[in-house]
Amino acid sequence: MNKTILLLLLLTIGFISCKNSKKEIDRVEITKQYFKVLVNSDYSKISDWFADSLKTIEGEHKNTYSKSEYLEILKWDSVFEPNYEILEIEQKDGIVKAKISKMDKRIFFLHEKPFIMNQIISFQKNKIISVETDYLNFDYPTWEKNKNGLLSWIDKNHPELNGFINDLTEDGGMKFLKAIELYKNKK
User: How much of the chain exceeds pLDDT 90, in percent?
Assistant: First the structure.
């Protein structure tokens, strides 16, 4: 009788353990939801997916942001009406690797074509802790030509907008967008 109870207890524990392991959060799905949030500029769930801080790596540029600081950057980004398209995505060894296409008003003006990038999204306890970005098609000469033309023209014609290029707040994004519109309509 004791052996039967023990066997039932072990089977129950084993069954519950298997069931709980299937409930592990799907990191690919979290990543897909993250990009959906970026496209829709709906940041209400951002705390569900991010750890207390987020590290971003783009080439040699490494930054660590609190949730509130990163939210400000997302608000800046949303001003340009971004569109993110997931071209490829996979989960391997606890990280998500994604190939992404991103286009928005700023990128269209400066780069003249979408960014294609590889991103590695790292997790800790099913929360995003870092996003590493490797640009695959960054056209530096086009970017610099368009950026320098914009900055020179704004400096001469609308100096009240100076500084927008480094202002990663929503207000800075609005000034950046206004600068682009004024520059494009200068003729």
Answer: 68
